[in-house]
Structures are given as C-alpha cells and as structure tokens.
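Thought: the user asked what non-reducing end alpha-L-arabinofuranosidase looks like in 3D. I have the sequence; next I should run the structure tool and report back without guessing.
Action: structure_tool
Action Input:
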Amino acid sequence: MKTNAKITIDCVRPSEHTVNPYLFGHFVEDIRDHMEAMLAFPLKDMDFESETESKTAVSGSWRAYTNGRNTRYAMEAPAPKHSGRAQRIRILSDDEAYAGITQITSLQGPKDYAVRMVARASIELRYLMIEAVDRRTEETLGQLRVELSSHNWQEYQGQLSITRACADAEIRVYIPAGHPRWVDHVSTGMLWIDHVSMLPVDSIAMVKREVVDMTRELNAGMMRLAGNYISAYHWEHGIGPVLERPVMYNEAWGGWTSKYFGTDEFIRFCRELRVEPLICVNDGSGTPVEAAQWIEYCNGSVDTPMGALRAKNGSPEPYDVRYWEIGNEVWGQWQVGTCTADRFAERTISFAKAMKEADDSIVLLACGHYDQDWNQTVLDLAGEYMDYLTLHLYHGYGPFGMNRDTPAEDRYKAIASYPEWTRHYIRQTTELIRSQSKHSHVKLAITEYNTMYYPNTVRKGLPNEHTLGAAVANAANLNEMIRCSDMVHIGSFSDLVNGWLGGCIRVGDYYADQYCGKEPGWSGLPLEIYGTPTYEVLKLYANRDIRRILPVKAECGTFSVSSHKKTPVELDALPDLDIVAGTNDDGSVITLLIVNRSLGEVRAELELQAFEASGETTVYEITGNFYDDINSVFQPEQIKCKEYGVSAEELQRGYALRPSSIYALEFRAKPESGGVE
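Observation:
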C-alpha cells in the first residue's frame, strides 16, 4: 500500500536551546558477556579463578593437556598479592610425557599477541612452551618458548605471533615431552601457573581495536559506566596493577566482575574516543565516603591521598570527570540496596554532600523512575541536591499484553509506538520537575533505553532487538528525545557491546542473554564483529550537524496499535512518519530525520520555508526488505546506511520512503543565499 504525505519545515524559528551531544551517548556494563566481548583477551580464567568443570582439578575454561599416566593437577593459593588461584601440575619424569593445560579459543591473525605469565617451577624444569594450534588440522599457528628461571614466583613476558586467523584454535601451555628428563624425587617435575594472558598488541585500553574503531564512528558524546552490578562494585578493587586486583563475584549477573576494566581503563577508553565519561557510584552497598574517594581519585590533585594513588598508578594529571550518577534502578527488586523513594532521597542527600565536598564542580544525576510517585518523593526531599533526574526506558510487548503468539504485524506496530511512550513519561516527569521552584532547575537524563521484546527469558534464535524493526523503534525514540532536548540532555543506549539485550556492536554469534540459546561459536564465525541495524541508526544520528531544532509539520497517514491492555497513551491514530528537523549553528544546513513506521511506502512532498537549498540534497537511508531483517555473522552488512544524492526536482515531485525505514536528508544552502532567510 502506498500513501502520500506532505512535510513542511519552518526554517526561520530555530529553538532557543541547543541539542546536547551527550544525547547520543552509550553505556558499558559488566553484564553477561559484555566485557568478555569488548575486551581483547582471547583467553578466559586467566587467573584460574573459576571452579573446575571436570573431574580433574583444572580451573574453569582450562583443561588438562597431558599424555602422562601419572600427571597430577591441583588448585592452590596464588602468588603473593595476586588474586584468583594457582594451577599446580605434577609431572612424572618416567612417563616421558608432555603435561600442561589447554584452552579452546578463537584467534585473529596474522597478529602479534603480548603474552604475560606468572609461574614458578621446580629447579629441573628449564622451559615450557606456549603454543597455538588449529584444533581441526593440528597446524601450528604460533609458538613461544619461555625459559623458566626461578623456583620462586616470577613474571614472564613474550610475544606470540599468530600466522593466520583461526575460529577453532587451542592454546597449550605445557612442558614438552622432549624436555630433558630428571630423576623423580622430592619436589621434582612441579609447575605452578598463577596467570596466563594474551593481548593483541594493537588493542587499546585492553579493548579490541575493532570495537574501538566502531565505537569511534558512533561519535557518542558521552560514555556511561553503570548498571545493576555497580551497586555491589567497589571501585578500589579495580585500580592498580591488574594482577593484584582482587577477583570479585558479580553479584548482579553471576560469574566474575572484570578486574581488567577498572576506572583507569574506562577513562583511557573515553579519552581515546574523545567522549565525556559518566560514572555511577555504588549507593547500594557502598558509602558516601567511598563515592567521595572515587571522585578524588579521578579529579583530585597529586596532593590529595586519592590523587596521589592515581599518580602512583600511572596518571598524575587529574581525569576531571564531571558527571556522576547516584543510584542505578534503586527502585527495582533486582538491585543490591533496593529501597523506598524516601530512603533513596536520604541517601542521595548524604552522597551528594560528600561528593560535592570532594569536588564542588561536579554535575550530579540521581535515580528517577517512570513511576511518578517515586519521582515526586525524590524531588520533594532531595531535588535541590541534584542536577539531573534519570529515566530508564525499555519498550516491549509487556504493556500491550502481547507475546510471541501475537501476529507479527501487531507486534511490529507496538514496538514502533516507542516514542509515544517516551513522550508520555518525559511530559509527566517534566511537569513534576517544574511544579516547584526548589527543583525546577533539574533536567532529564535517559541513561538507559532500548527495545525490550517479551518474553525475554526464552530465546528461540536471534532476539528481536537486532532487527530493522528495532532500529525503526529506536530511531523514532531518538526523534522524541531530540524534540524534548530542552529537558533531555543525556541519553545512553543499552548496551554498547553484546551484553543483556541488544548491544549495538556485536562480537561473535552469542546473541541470547538469558537462559536458552546456542553455545558461542556454533556458527563457525566467532571472530565476526559487526553493527546491528540500530548501530547504523545511532551512527547516523550522532554524526548529523543538528544544534537547534526547527518546527516541522507532517500531513500523513496513521496506524493504530491493538493493545490487549489499557495503556496510558492513546494508540488509535499514530502518524506513519515520525519526524524531527534541525539546523546547524549558522543555519547553512537543514537536516530532516524521518522514520517511516508504516508497513507501506510513503511518497512525501517536502517544503522548506524561507530556505533556498542547493541543487542536490544528500540522503542517508537505512532500509531492508522486511522489518524482521537482521545483520548476523552470516550477513553482517545486510542492513547498512546508504548515502546518495537527490535532485531538488525529485524531492518536489514527492520522494518515496520505503516501509519500516529511516532517513536523514541534508539540505545545504546555496552559497549566495547564506542559509535561512
């Protein structure tokens, strides 16, 4: 079905406020496989922290590698000051065998890896081998000989050159059978390994270079460090020499909290990307003093205790982190330290006072909710202590009473109504904020948002959060955030890499966050790194030159959502086209962002009032053949943003907008016109 539309942009009335670049921010969280996918280490259990998964006492992802009848394995305490445990291997000389440990992984190549190992050995063991092989062919991909020089704990470093990429590789750390034999006696043939890691030499802040490069293209503005785990996270455990950082259980999500991506690594990541860091402090199990010390660590001079500690850890210059958030979803039962709104307000005041005392120039965010009763209490009691109230907006089937048995088109329309819900919650919260002078200064930060299809506890194949339809919903939601940018200054898409729902950057073929799904590596393409359709949207939006928004009117068709539940917003006649327009600082570029939410083509006529455009308009298009189209390891670029030029005559005749698609049109002023009249 094809329909017609007319879009009119008033180019002479730009908004008084500017659109904050932090609106296009992102979010990193230690959740599920987020850190594992983002960080560049190909090995797991590098500190032998996990319980054995077999009858042999070998840690976690490691396995025994020996053809010795009498080889014995055990777990022991680690080297002094180190965390995790040590792997002990006892080799009997008379077996004349090889013995060590091995781990299955995937390796990029050709590439050089920096190898780091902490080990000790009985004195007759002179060397060991670190070897990478193709599991299917036994081809050697790289080999490093490590000379063992001490019976005491010692750190060894080297470089392992991998000749080619291998999706099904194995890393072996072992004493080879060809090692000179010894007389078996007391304390002979014993090897202890405390740590083994491999890091590509081209990684940045321990992050995969490909992830850094893709994130850089997102032009994020701001990067948030937070999530459910933060309410049980103590920042001091994530600084200093990484081998001396403690292994901490991730109380929110299970497994181990990543000790390899702490404060200093996060700041380095942000600096590499030239984005503003936003850090959420632990108000669940932490204290105001602890939060203040974190601020001092980041912002204090070397004359302060924490500033001196930062300098000792290699960064004498302050990080100057301005944005700090108190509390993450404290209203949720899943959150460590969950509490009532009045109790959280009390905590906010105590945290804010301590944090401001550490640095009075910081900007404070406090945990808000789409439930206005929560917001009312927090604002009334603690509004004067905060600069921003936060909202987390996840849009899914739940409010509509839908499930996977609901017809696909109805489900798509429900998800495409995302901006209507966002508008509702922003308006409610804005009215509440402006209702009293003592907290009328507060602005909004949507520090998490994404599509969230239900039920999300049983995955069958690829989650819907990766589809073109999800990209349509997220684009329309961004349009609403831009329309409300006088109040909404900060946005954080959830998540950046893999993680819980739909990380916009995907590493490998592990799509499902919950309880059912295929094992990682099932596709044979675990090294593939690509962007989802929503990645394309986020990159498109953040790289447009929109400083002020313009009034825009659209005459177009409508659609309705068939909800099985009563909803707080009207869903009877939603416009097919979700549109926002803006201009750059000098008015020489007009940008029109259009989301065609409908299931049919829309032919749109465009009128720019009081703006003389040059002959050709640049069009960016994100589209596909079907709203459930995806990017995957098999087709990583099926949905890509395409750029092309369109003549003014073609636009005047009516421009065809494909179903379930996203567009950005850039009109440049004729050189002699100077822009807006």
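Thought: the tool returned a structure. Summarizing for the user.
Final Answer: Structure for non-reducing end alpha-L-arabinofuranosidase predicted. The domain at 21-41+204-464+480-493+532-543 is CATH 3.20.20.80 (TIM Barrel). The longest strand covers residues 111-121.
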